[in-house]
Amino acid sequence: MTAFFVCHSRERLSQSQVEQCVGRLECQRLAISKKTDVEHVAYLNRKFGRLYKEDR
Fold it and tell me: Is the four-CA dihedral 47, 49, 55, 56 of positive or negative sign?
């Protein structure tokens, strides 16, 4: 039983790996604006149906 917890308690990514991934995501994301918000909602509506209002 102890081996199970030891095996599952190890970290999958180091702190620096997580920070590197977050930094890459932040560099690639679009600027936050009303236009990108509207485009994102339109994308979600196309993908999942009309679940979200486009005039937020």
Answer: negative
Cα atoms in the Cβ-side hemisphere of radius 13 Å centred on 33: 6
H helices of the chain, in order, are 2-9, 15-28, 34-48
Task: Give the SS3 label for residue 56.
Answer: coil
Neighbour tally for 41: CB within 10 Å: 16
Half-sphere exposure (Cβ direction) of 53: Cα atoms closer than 13 Å = 2
> What pLDDT digit, counting tens, does each position of 19-44 carry?
999 999 888 888 888 898 889 889 98
pTM assigned to the model: 0.44
Whole-number Å distance between alpha carbons of 54 and 39: 8
